[in-house]
Amino acid sequence: MPKALRWWVLVLGLVALPGAWALPDPAGGVGGSGATPDGIGGTGIHPGGIGGTGIHPGGIGGTGIQPGGIGGTGITALGVIQRFGSIYVNGQEYALSPQTRYSVDGAAGTAKDLHLGDRVTVQAAADGRAIAQDVRVEHAVIGRVTEVDAAKRQLTILGETIQAGKTTPVTVHDSDQSLSFTALKAGDVVSISGLDRGNGHWLATAIRRLYPADTAPARVPLLLRGQVDALYPSQNTLEVGATKLKVNGALLQPLRVGQSVVVRGTYTDGQARVESVTPAALAAQDVGNRVSLVGYLARGDNGWTTHGVSLVEGSHTLYENGDAADMRAGSMVAVEGRVQAPGVVDAERVIFSVNPMDFDFPIIPRMPVLPPVFHHPEIERPEFGPPEIEPLVERPELPDND
């Protein structure tokens, strides 16, 4: 066979071989790069996930995202129920689902136990929107009213001073009937939701009358949240805020000054009887979780605290309506940040002079998050030009005339 013709046969044979060149596979794969209808070899993409980035069906490895929750990137909110339609806390809407769990002062509850102005802790996951997993109602004080100052809108309960605002809701337990503040009388049994101002003073965000004075049963509940200010073991006495309480000596043994506690008991025949003193649940525990909270600042051992949570400030902290110099005991602040360690929040934003019933965190524009770019290996294809063909001129053999 002539040399040029052999070259043509070789070229045509190579082109005809299946898979000889990495051309797009009509079935959805890319020969040589490992791409298949369900994934891309070498990049780790597989059905429902992206190898190497940890994304897998129902979750995101490495970030802890799992179906129904975001470990390490969940949300903890400590604040007041501002309105309904789901619930709004610190300006954020939290959707309530059939799986949402509820508690009231540690006892199991339902969505019907949520009321405007209730001080709550919400644990939520973000799945396109914030979905509440746990909603804990935590009353500040429950007990008998010993004094009412209608002009100042103040109540005294268990020695604690409760300050109500002009718009603080006052309602009747079970019926949600609204009351005027002046309808409250000494002897009434009430529950107070509110924010701790320190030194036995509270800002009430909701007041519910459990029993009027003339119909209260002989045995009614008692509850007080606060910080242990003093212990008197020889007198079997505990001081929380402005209140001194007689307790069983055994209850004092595990306690320490400065500890946040919940005191529970009853009034029996008008006398307060303490039945338990337990450490308050740590508000922000899950490292990496987003946190929003509103409350009064207090000076702790290692800096500023609120709700028993230590706040860590830094050069990255943004201040609104004030600056770092305005961080002082008794200042009302809203804080947004991330859990750095159990009970410790890295404060990214601090807003001063907020109304806990009517505020939200202004949106800070963020850089857009771009989807990952996958680099596919370049497929080198040899360039083919037309083969060089030497013209073959056949000359007829002429007969020899000789």
UniProtKB/TrEMBL annotation:
Domain DUF5666: 81-135, 143-207, 301-350
UniProt keyword annotation of Signal present: yes
Region of interest (Disordered), residue spans: 381-402
Alphabetical list of Pfam families matching this protein: DUF5666 (PF18914)
Endpoints of the signal sequence: 1-22
Keyword terms of this UniProt record: Signal
InterPro entries: DUF5666 (IPR043724)
Compositional bias segments (type: Basic and acidic residues): 392-402
Spans through the membrane: none
The protein's name: DUF5666 domain-containing protein
Protein species of origin: Acidithiobacillus ferridurans
